[in-house]
Specification:
Order of helices and strands: HH
Protein name: VbhA domain-containing protein
Radius of gyration: 18 Å
Shape: elongated
Strand content: under 5%
Organism: Heterorhabditis bacteriophora (Entomopathogenic nematode worm)
Structural class: mainly alpha
Largest sheet: none
Number of helices: 2
C-alpha cells in the first residue's frame, strides 16, 4: 500500500479537491482496521454508537 492511513487534506489544493474532511474512502486505513479487528487489537471505531440509547432491563423502584 502506498497510501497514508492517517491522511488529512492540508494544502489549499487538497482542500479544494477533497473537501475539508476528505471523505473519499482510504483503502490503507480500511485494510489496517480489518487486520487490527481480526487480531483483536484496538481500532478507532466505536462499539456502542449511542450509549444513552442502551436499554436498562432492571426495574427501577
Amino acid at each position: 500500500m502506498f497510501e497514508d492511513p492517517y491522511w488529512q487534506p492540508s494544502t489549499l489544493e487538497e482542500i479544494e479537491e477533497f473537501g475539508i474532511k476528505g471523505d473519499s474512502p482510504n483503502h490503507a486505513k480500511l485494510y489496517m482496521d480489518a487486520v487490527r479487528r481480526r487480531k483483536g487489537l484496538p481500532t478507532d471505531d466505536l462499539i456502542v454508537v449511542s450509549a444513552e440509547k442502551q436499554r436498562n432491563l432492571s426495574r427501577n423502584k
